[in-house]
Amino acid sequence: MLCVLCAFCAVLCPPFGSGLSAAVRAAPGRAARATSDVLRLTEEAGRTKERYEQALRAAREQKALVDEIARRQHSRKVVSAALRDDAGAAARAQYRTGGFTVGEGTGDVEDPIELLEMQTPAEQRRATLGRLLDEDVRNGRRLDAEERELVAARSELEKDRARLKDAQHSVTAHLAAARDRLNALSQEAVGNGHCEPPDIDGTDGTGGERAAEEHQEWTRPVESYELSAGFGGTGANWANGHTGQDFAVPVGTPVRAVGDGTVVSAGCGGAYGISMVIQHEGGWYSQYAHLSAQLASPGQHVRGGRMVGLSGTTGNSTGPHLHFEIRTTPEYGSAVDPVEWLNARGVRL
User: Fold this and answer.
1) Cα–Cα distance, 47 to 51 (Å, whole number)
2) Could you tell me if 315 and 272 are in contact, meaning their C-beta atoms sit under 8 angstroms apart?
3) Integer Cα distance of 282 and 152 in angstroms
4) In whole angstroms, what is the distance from residue 341 CA to residue 349 CA?
5) pLDDT on residue 144
6) Which DSSP string corresponds to 309-338?
7) Would you state the pLDDT for residue 258?
8) Which residues of the chain have pLDDT under 70?
């Protein structure tokens, strides 16, 4: 009877903490989906932005062509008017002289042979005027056709631009929502003390080498950023001065290894939140802190430019950013100015 009562109580009243364990067990799957969503939408947003900017450039080029044709049409009409005036003057002169062009100094000429000799260049001039007028008509028709085609093409480009603008707004909104989900899950992971790399696309949790990434000897930890707090800064947030360089970037921004190395440690809590340290040649170490996801594990070798995490705002952070350090040891307290260190390796921030 006692055993039955115990079993009954176990069903109605699960052991303390079992609900938390279920959440912890479910977290890696949700983190993997959120991380994959952010990566996918970030790439999609980049492609959409590039296509939109291409459409803008094409629209500007089309407008420039239309304006150029309008300019050429205007010039052609000016020349055409002059040609027609010249041809009209020649025709009126021929009419007045009964077939001979009146030129300067012909009033005193009475010899018919001499007048016939003067008529020859006049006929050549009229022939040239006629040819130029014919060419002008053909050029006008060609420019009209080009202008109609460009106007039609420009209309289609404007429609494409509008569609791409809508697509850009849509993917930006979805990316913002995915970043919010990832941020919430990263805060939850830090609170639970479970910050393992998510299993993305069936890999070992690091996303693999991601073939699209190009190996770089030394590079920036993030591609697009705004520099904020610099090395050695003082303030309420740092008891003994700021030990790194902060890169203001949205949650979920890809963070890359600044050079070839091996991940020697990964953090999950404390002041740095989700973080990792990579050892490089020459006894140097780079640290990446306040991440929303780590995409590499201790002991793993990474190449320069390889994505090792996603930026976030875990730990003692006042907003989304990457805190980046260069150290002479893996531990806190051995930092040097990362900007000067990168500059010495040909990387400008």
Assistant:
1) 6
2) yes
3) 62
4) 11
5) 78
6) EEEB--SS-SSSBEEEEEESSSSTT-EE-H
7) 97
8) 1-28, 76, 82-130, 132-133, 201-214, 233-240
The pLDDT of residue 311 is 97
Q: What per-residue confidence (pLDDT) applies to 213?
A: 58
8 A C-beta contact, residue 254 and residue 223: yes
CATH 1.25.40 matches 34-189: no
Residue 17's pLDDT is what?
A: 40
Question: Among candidates 14, 16, 25, 18, which has minimal Cα distance to 188?
Answer: 25
d(CA 13, CA 305) in angstroms, rounded, equals 51
265 φ, ψ to 5°?
-160, 155
Q: Where are the domains of the chain?
A: 2-27, 34-189, 226-343
Residue 326 contacts residue 349 (beta carbons within 8 Å): no
The predicted-structure confidence for 228-283, as pLDDT tens digits, reads as follows 888 876 655 555 678 899 999 999 999 999 999 999 999 999 999 999 999 999 99
Q: Is residue 203 left, alpha or beta, with left meaning phi > 0 and alpha meaning psi from -120 to 50?
A: beta
Residue 75 tokens read as 């010039």
Contact present, 255 and 266 (Cβ < 8 Å): no
Cα–Cα distance for residue pair 312/269, rounded to 1 Å: 13
226-343, superfamily in CATH? Glucose Permease (Domain IIA) (2.70.70.10)
Are residues 127 and 86 in contact, defined by beta-carbon separation less than 8 angstroms?
Answer: no
- Whether the CB-CB separation of 263 and 226 falls below 8 Å is answered with no
pLDDT at 121: 64
